[in-house]
Specification:
By secondary structure, the chain is an alpha/beta fold. The protein is built from 38 helices and 14 strands.
Amino acid sequence: MRGQNRMSSTSSNARNTTKVIILSYMRSGSSLLGELFNTNDDALYVFEPLWYLCVKAVPAYEQLVYLNGTVRYPDTSCQDLGRNILESFLTCDIENIDVGTLSAAWHLEKSLKLQKLASCGPKPTCIKDLVRTCQKTAVRAAKIIRVRLSDLKPLLVKYPELKVIHLVRDPRGILHSRIEIKEYYRLNPLVTAEEICGNMKRDSETFKQFRVFFPGRVFQLRYEDFSSEPLLYTEQIFKFLNLSVPARTKAWVVENTHRQTNGAFDTSRNDSLKTAYRWRHLIPMQTVEAMIGPCKTAYDELLYVDKMSERELRDKNFPLRLEMCSDNMPAVSTTRAMRWSPAWRLLHVSKISTRLMTILISRAWLYLVTVLTLGAVLTYLFTVHCRQPLLPVIPSQSSQESLSVTTPRNVPKIDTEDSAKKVIILSYMRSGTSLMGKLFDENDEALYIFEPMWYLCIVAVPGFRQIQFLNGTKWHPPPSCSSIGLREVESYLTCDVREITTGSLSQFWMQNARRTNTFYRCGLKPDCIEAFAADCKQAPLRAVKVINLRVDHVTGLLDKYSNLRIIHLVRDPRGMIQSRIPMKEYYYYSPTITASSLCGDMLRDVRAFHRLSRLYPQQLLQIRYEDFAESPLQYTEKIYHFLGFALPGKVKKWVQENTHAQAQDSSGLGTARANSSETAYKWRKSIAWDLTLAMDDMCKRVYKALGYVEAKSEKMLRNWDTPLKVPLNQHTKHRN
C-alpha cells in the first residue's frame, strides 16, 4: 500500500519538519508531556494514534478499511501496522491511515488540531483540511504507549529528522496508578509489574544502542525529574529538538503544574512532584517488596532505589531516585538525604571501586588484593543494606501461625471422609461447560457448583485483594490462582466450608445453580452457612465446573480421593475463539494470541489426560463438545454410567427439551440451545478465513490429538456437510 499514490504530504518540505515520538508506558505521565506539543501553535500533536488498532481492531480481528478502499485484516500484533500509522501521521500521508483510527473520537479529541476531524469524521473534505493543516506545521509529534523502542528503528533510519523521547517512571508509581483505574486494569499486579519492568529494561537497553547509532536523536527522561523541575526540563526537551520554547507552552507549564486535576487522564497537576509520588502513601508495602525481584534490573538501569523500609517509603524526604546524568539531560542536584541514603552510598562506592580496580589491574602484584578487597566491601554493603523481598502470599496473622484455617465456632466441622461421588468438569471458556453442568444441576440428588474459582481468578488475584475466610483469617493472594483455587474446589467437593473464601461463597455466579442460589439469597449468616454445609453433605453426587484449572493440577486430588471423577470437555479451538470474540467484556487480546495460548493449554491437558488415564483408568473421561451436541441424550447416559448412577428422568427430560428445536436459544452464557448440533458449528459461518488459516497452523498438534480436521479451503469451512472432525472410533483407533 505504501509507496503508491502517496499524497502530496510527502513533498520535499516534509524533510524540513521536526518529527517527534514520545514513547512511554500507560500511567507514566506521557499525556502531561504530550501537552508540551499540543499547546504549540506550530505543532501537530497526535494523542495515542495506535489506540484503535491495538485496543479495538487487533483484539476483535476486525477488518481495516482505508480511504482508498483497500481492506485487510490486522496482523497478529499491532507493532508493524502501528509503525505505518505513525509514519503516516508524521508525514501527513493520511490516505494510508485506516478509517477506524481516523474515526476514533476518544484519542482525536485530545489533540487540538484533530478535534475538527473528530466531529467531522473521515469525509473527503475533512481529510483534505487535515492534510493542509498537517503540512503547514513545523513540528509533528505523536505520543504512544503500545510499541517498544526497538520497533521505531526503521523510522529512525528512514527519517533523519525524527527524534524520540523515551519517558520512564518509577514502576511502582505506574503499577499503583493502573490499579486505581479499575476498568483499565484486569491482571495480577505482580504479572503486570513483570511486564512493565521487562519492557523498561528492554527499552533502556535499546536506548543505549540508539545513542550510539543515532547520536543526538534519542532523549531519555524520568517523569519524576520532569515533575520536580517542569519548566527546566521543558526547556531541555525543546533544546534537544533544536527549538525554542513557545511562550504559550511555557505559560501552560507554569499554570498546569500548579493547579487542581480534573480526572485520571487530565494533564493539569496541582503539584506535579507531589502527584508523581502520591503512590508512596497508598501502595501496600508487600507490593513494593514483591516488585524488587522482577524490577531489580529496571531499578538499576534507571537509578531508582529498590530497597527501603516502610518508614522510608512513606517519608517524602527520603529520595527514591538517584542522580542521573546523560549527554542530553541536566544533572539534578543530589540532596543531603539522597547522599546519605544506603542506595546512594552503594552506587557511588561501586563507582569508586570500579575506578580503583581499573588503576590497580595493570599491576599484577596488586590484582588479587584488589579483588578480595572489593568483594569484602560489596558483600558488607549488600549484607547491611539489602533485605530479601517478602513473598506475595502472606497470612495476615503472626508468621508463627499455620496457613491452615481454624474452625470458626459458628460453622460446623464437616467430615471430609465421605462416600459421595465427586466430579470436576474441567474445560475452557466457551467450550460448552455450562450446558454440561446443567446435567448435574437438574439432578435433585446432586449439588452443582458453577465456577467456584471465579472470584479468586477474576477479582482477588488480578486486583491483589485480600482473601478472607469465614473465621476472619486474611491472606494476600498468590501471583497465580490455580493453587489456592484447587484448594477451593476441593473444599466444595468435601463440604469443608471452613476452607472456602467469603468472596467465593458470595459471588453472583452462585445464582447459576439451583441449590447454591438458595444459599446465595440467604447470605453468609451462620444459620445459612450451616444449612449449606448440611445440604452439601447430604448430596450423594457433588459436581463443580471450572475453566481455570489444567488437567495436571488435579493429580493430587485423584490420588487422594478414589471416588473423584474428572470429565475433560474439549471443543474445536476455532469454535471457542470465534465464540469469545463477540463477548468483548470478556475478551481483551488478539484472537491469534489467545488461540496460541488456548491450544497450548489444550495440548498440555491432552497429554496429562493420557498420562493420568493410565494411572487412574476408571476416574477420567474425555468428551468432545461436538459429539455431545450431536447426540446429547446418548452422551448424557454415557456420563452417568461413567459416574455409576442411573440417569434421572428429570435430567433426561431437560436434555430433550433444551437441546432440540422446541428450545429457545438463551443468552451468551445460558444453556438452552434450539439445536445443540447447529449451535456447536455456528462458528463456521462467521469466523474469518484468515483467522482459520492462522489457527490451523498453530493448533495442528491439538487437532491431531483430538481428531479435528484442518479446513483445506474456505468452501470446505463454510460447507456444514463436510465434517471438521474425525469420527470418534476412527480417531481412537488412529491414536492407538
